[in-house]
Amino acid sequence: MLLTVTATTLREVVRRPTALLLVFALPLVFYLVRLDVPWQAIRFLAIGVGWAIATLSLFSHVSSRHLDQRLAVVGASPSALFLGRQLALLGIGAVVAACYLGVVLLTQDEIPRMGGIVLLLVTTVLISAPLGALVSLIIGRELEGALALLSVMALQLLVDPEERAAGLLPLWSTRELSAYAIEDHATASLAPGLAHFAATLALCTAIGWAASVIRLTPVRLATPGERH
Amino acid sequence: MAAGEWQGRFTDGLVDRGVHPAEADELARDAVLEAEGAGLDPASLYGPAVAYAVAMARTVRDARVNAAPLARERGEVVLRLHEVTKRYRRRQALPPTSLTLRAGEVAAVVGANGSGKSTLLNLCAGLVRASSGTVERTPRIGYAPQQDGVAPLLTATEHFRLFGAAYGMAPRRAVATGRHLASQLGWTPRRDGIAGHLSGGTQQKLNVVLSELDRPDLILLDEPYQGFDHGSYVDFWDQVFTWRDAGAGVLVVTHLLHELDRVDHVLELAAVTGA
User: Fold this and answer.
1) A194-204, pLDDT tens digit by residue?
2) Quick one: CA torsion of A44, A49, A53, A56, rounded to 10 degrees?
3) Which residues in B lie closer than 8 A to residue A16 (C-beta atoms)?
4) Residue A182 DSSP class
5) CA-nearest residue of chain B to A17?
6) Which of A48, A85, B64, B78 is in Cβ range 3.0-4.6 Å of A27 for a Cys bridge?
7) Which helix (H) or strand (E) holds B58?
8) H-type alpha helices, chain A
9) What ipTM goes with this model?
10) Would an 8 Å CB–CB cutoff place A142 in contact with chain B?
11) Which residue has the higher pLDDT, B197 or B24?
12) How many CB atoms lie within 10 A of CB A199?
């Protein structure tokens, strides 16, 4: 069931070529707009990738809700439905991340830790897919969900990362991990970046999965007894 | 053409072909209501009134011929509702309702808009929890909701594979079964056509086929014939009675009253007026 849902989700996304094109284009816009300041361009790129994948995840989960309910009623596992879609979105995220790793390789020649860029993009994708799912479960409508994600990402871009409250934002780790990738002496950024990433990933995945299972699990109904 | 004019011509056409005037009035009202429900003019949905009256009069005659009850065995209880109600905060969505449906029986749920027909079906499916009363049903069900039953970006074959996986069927068997069931509704799915490009009636055929893919013991259908042409409509009811004769229990929400003399139970829900 899991792989069937993954394959189905991939097909659905591929059949929306304009949406897919915009998913690929959004991070590029973020990247190009700050190309003159490499560390900012790379951090913006990561947030652009995160925003694109989170929005794709939001729309995928919202648009499949009724179908998933129907599938769950006739016996599909709610966990397989949630995780199957997540797997597909992570796959698309991995392709987007790989493309932009290539873009960075081609356009930046003074990055001390290229492995740090890989880590940055991979962690961003891993957070974004369950983040979009989580927003879809809390808000449940495409427009409202997209606006909520827009607010989160705008905050992410505008807020001073040194502020204590900034750590509550889901992609705060991108700042630490981009510093680790770009700055020669920023090895101390790695640990807090990874810790924040791990906590955010665990939180988004666990809440998204639990909420999805609760929402999709049909009411337990007794089988008609023989006494009547 | 205005709906009133279409309704008048349709009624006259039915009466001219031997349908009782009261029944003709009722059929015409139903047809207009269904078109309104679909957001279309009757002429757009059914075509010219006189041509549709010819076809409908033939259906009414066939229904009378088929109305004689089949000598068939009723099986085990597949659905039992006892004084089931549903409230959303202060609004009552479903008044106290009871029904016992056995394998080999068809029950029709009728009632005005807002009387709780779809709520009842959702309760039977397990999508919502009853506020009071008990719902007992067999675990193996098929379910065709009124809306959003199919994924617009998937082909029919992909739907068969996906629902087959949910039922625990091998992909090849699910596709073969789906195509066979579709042919019984007069439809041959194209391999590359996505559901969103199908007509409304064909999407509903896909919706119905998905509900019966694994020969369930109980089939729950929520007005699944919207957008069907006359031939498909007749095929659909034939299919309902085929499922019944094969031993399935069928619960179908409908507001087309001329099929009710062929079913085993008619559950009429009163309009819910408020708190």
Assistant:
1) 999 999 999 99
2) 80
3) 153
4) H
5) B153
6) A48
7) helix B49-66
8) 2-14, 17-33, 38-63, 65-73, 78-107, 114-138, 142-158, 172-182, 190-216
9) 0.87
10) no
11) B197
12) 12
Decide which of B105 and B18 is more confident: B105
Structure tokens at B16: 């001219």
Give every strand in the sheet of B77-88, ordered side by side: B91-102, B77-88, B132-137
Instruction: Answer yes or no: is pLDDT of B257 > 80.
Output: no
Is residue A12 very low, low, confident or very high in pLDDT (cuts 50, 70, 90)? very high
Q: Touching check for B5 and chain A: CB below 8 Å?
A: no
The whole-angstrom distance between B221's CA and the closest CA on chain A is 12
CA distance A90 to B176: 32
Closest CA to A57 of A30, A84, A27: A84
Min distance A78 CA to chain B CA atoms (Å):
10
Q: Do B143 and A70 touch (CB under 8 A)?
A: yes
Q: What is the pLDDT of residues B74-128, one digit of tens each?
A: 788 999 999 999 998 888 888 899 999 999 999 999 888 888 888 999 999 999 9
Closest chain A residue to B167 measured between Cα atoms?
Answer: A75
Most B-contacting residue of A141, A219, A227 (CB-CB within 10 A), to test interface: A219
pTM (2 decimals)?
A: 0.80
Whether the CB-CB separation of B163 and A68 falls below 8 Å is answered with no
How many residues appear in chain A?
A: 228
Percent of chain A topping pLDDT 70: 98
Residues of B in contact with A74 (CB under 8 A): 141-143, 163, 166-167, 214, 216
The per-residue pLDDT for range B189-215, each reduced to its tens digit, is: 888 889 999 888 889 889 999 999 988
Nearest-CB residue to B126 (from A1, A67, A219): A219
